[in-house]
Amino acid sequence: MDKAYRQVKFLETILDNMQEPIYVLDKHGKFIYVNRALIDLSGSTKEVLLTYTMYRMAEEGIIERAVSEDVLKYKRAFSFFQDVVNFRGQRHRQLNMTSPIFDSNGNVEFIVAVLLPLNLLTQQIHSANSGSRHNTLDPSRMRVDNREVIAESPAMRQVLELARALSDVDTAVLVTGETGCGKDVVAHLIHSLGHRSKGRFVSINCASLPETLLEAELFGYAKGAFTGASSAGKRGLFEEADGGTLFLDEINSMPLALQGKLLQAIETKRFTKVGSVKSTTVDFRVLAASNQDLAACVQNGSFRQDLYYRLNVMPVYIPPLRERQEDIEPLANYFLRHYGDKYGRPRYLSAKAMLQLKSHSWPGNVRELKNLIERMIITSSGEVIEISEIPGSSLNPSLPEESHPAQASYFLPPSLLLDDVPEDFSLNFYMEQCERALLQQVLKRCGSTYKAAQYLKTSQSAIARRKAKYNL
Fold first, then answer.
1. What is the pLDDT of residues 131-188, one digit of tens each?
2. What is the mean pLDDT of the chain?
C-alpha cells in the first residue's frame, strides 16, 4: 500500500511541475485530478475544481461546450481551440488536447486533457524558432535581425525563394509593390542571406530629404563645402555602405538632377563628394525599391531611362496583402506576440475577430495590419480581443450579421412602424437587438445557459456564444 501511495505521489509531483495545465475526468465528466498549472490558470482552488463537472462549467459559461461528450461518443482523441473565462473573469484562448483512457471492455473510463494557453504555445514556438538565424529549409520562417519573415501564401514563398537566389550575387535588384507591403524587409533579407551580410545594410528613403540635403547625404561633402557644413566634412551613405549594401527606398522620388550622378556612381563605383574635386572609390551593392511604376515614370519624363534599366536588372514584385490572404493570420499572430511582449500585455484574437481581419482589404498592407494590432493591444481590456474592439474602418460590412458588433445604441421594438425607421437603421442590427432582448429576458428567468437552451429549444453552446457576444 505504501509503495502504491508513493508511486501516486511521485506521478502527481511530476505533473505538478509541468508548465502545461492538465486535468483528468471520469466517465461522467467529473474532474478527478487537476495539476498546479491548471489551478493557477483557473483562478480557483483544487478543492473547488474537483466539485465541478465539464457540463457544469459549460452551463456557467466558463467554457463554450463540454467536449467530454464527443470523447465519450466517438471514443477518440480531440484537439481544438477553446475560449475560456476563468473564475477571476479573465478571458483567454487555449489549445485543448483530450485523449480517452479505456477499461478492459473498451469503454471510456477516463479522459485526460493537456491544455496549451496561446501565450505558452507562442512562447514555445518562438523558442523553437530562435535557435538559428534563419531556417534554410523553410522559406516561410526566415529571420532578419531577430524579426521573423512570414510567408504562408504561395506568392510570398516565391518572393522569398527569389530573394534567397539573389542573395549571393551582386546584381542590382528593384523591389516593387504598394506602400506598406514589406519592400524594405525583402531588401534586408537579400542582404542578410548573402556574402555581404558582414558589411552594413545602409538604407535611405529618397522621399524624406530635399534635393540639396539628399546629395550631401548620399555622397558626403568636403570640409567647408557650404555654409553650416562641418569643418571635418562628412562621409556619405555610399561610403558607409562600402563592403555592404546600399538600399535606396522610394527611388521614384529621386530628383531628376541627381539621377545622372547616381547612375555614374552605381556603374563605376566612384563618386565625388559635394565641394570636392577628388573621386572616392567604394565597393557596394545597390538595392532599390519603388511604390510606383518606374516604367511609367520613364514615360512621363520624371525618371531617367538609363537609370531605370541599370536598377531593374532583377525585378522583385511583392503582391499586396489582399492578394495573399493566407499570410494575414500568421502575420497577425506574429504582431500579437511581438507587441504583447513589448507592452507586457499578452493578447489573442477571437475566432470572429480573426475572420474580420482576414476579410479586410488592407489598403495599407502589412504596415496597416501591424499598426492595427499594436493599437488593439494597447486599447483592449481583456486577454482575448473581441470583434467589438476592432476599429470600424477595418470591419467588413458584407460578412454575416453574427460577425458584427453593435453599430448603434438604440433599441427598436418588434412592433416597428416603417414611418419610425431612423436613417441609420439596418435589418441586421434590428434582428440582433431583438435577439439580445429575448436572450436577456430568458437568462434572467432561467438562471443558466443550460436551462435557457432548453427553454429556447437550442444548444447550450449556442446560448453561451450569444451571451458572450452581447456581454450579458
1. 443 333 344 456 665 567 888 888 898 888 889 889 888 889 999 999 999 999 999 9
2. 81
β-pairing, 201-205 with 245-249? parallel
E strands in 269-418: 270-272, 279-281, 285-290, 314-317, 348-349, 384-385
State the residue for C-alpha cell 483512457.
101
User: How many other C-beta atoms are found inside a 10 Å radius of the C-beta of residue 452?
Assistant: 24
Q: Distance from CA of residue 215 to its chain's centroid?
A: 38
Residue 130 has pLDDT above 60, yes or no: no
| Residues contacting 409, CB < 8 A, separation 6+ | none
Buried b (16+ CB within 10 A) or exposed e, 396-407: eeeeeeebbbee
pLDDT at 147: 63
- 86-120 pLDDT, tens per residue? 887 777 778 888 999 998 888 899 999 998 887 66
CB atoms within 10 A of CB 460: 21
Quote the CA–CA distance of 9 and 32 in Å, as a whole number: 15
Cβ contacts of residue 376 below 8 Å, gap of 6+? 347, 385, 389, 390
Q: What's the one-letter identity of residue 171?
A: T
Cell numbers placing 98: 483530450
How far is 41 from 20, CA to CA, in rounded Å? 10
